[in-house]
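User: quick one, sequence for these tokens?
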């Protein structure tokens, strides 16, 4: 628990060098095997913008949980690697790991960035099929995916179904209209 707190401090302060040194100490002391510690290290590398060390750690992990998979997806999205996020999601599914809200947010973002409407619709259907509550953050991600893929009618329909859309939802819908505008100045 102490190591996880220190790792989180390194992550929050973006102290990459100190985090790497701590990681080396954890390996020497044998604490790296703990899943909670590994996930904290992944998150630290992500927050420090270190794709290489995050990916290296992820690849060395013998066991991965939904937090591990979601954190590495977030790391790849931070670096604009949407294709890799979709590949990771497929691998995660193949390994029998159930996605959570955060996982769906990253995969929807990747689908929107790549204009993969069919894949995004499939993810939206999975969310509905699993009875997952489409709260504001997840709902905004779905709206953004549809809008980025040019499906403005679907984006608007989802927006209209939200009981109390937040500013991010409004912004996602408006950005979609701007992105898909045929009006020329």
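Assistant:
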């Amino acid at each position: 628990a102490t190591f996880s707190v220190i790792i989180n401090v390194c992550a929050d302060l973006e102290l990459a060098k100190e985090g790497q040194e701590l990681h080396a100490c954890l390996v020497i002391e044998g604490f790296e095997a703990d899943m909670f510690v590994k996930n904290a290290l992944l998150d630290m590398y992500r927050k420090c913008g270190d794709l290489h060390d995050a990916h290296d750690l992820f690849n060395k992990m013998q066991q991965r949980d939904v937090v591990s998979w979601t954190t590495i997806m977030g790391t790849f999205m931070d670096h604009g690697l949407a294709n890799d996020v979709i590949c990771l999601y497929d691998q995660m599914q193949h390994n029998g790991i159930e996605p959570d809200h955060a996982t769906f947010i990253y995969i929807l973002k990747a689908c929107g960035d790549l204009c993969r409407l069919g894949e995004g619709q499939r993810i939206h259907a999975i969310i509905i099929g699993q009875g997952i509550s489409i709260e504001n953050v997840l709902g905004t991600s779905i709206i953004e995916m549809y809008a980025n893929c040019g499906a403005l009618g679907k984006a608007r329909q989802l927006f209209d179904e939200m009981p109390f859309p937040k500013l991010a939802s409004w912004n996602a819908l408006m950005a979609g209209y701007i992105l898909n505008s045929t009006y020329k100045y």
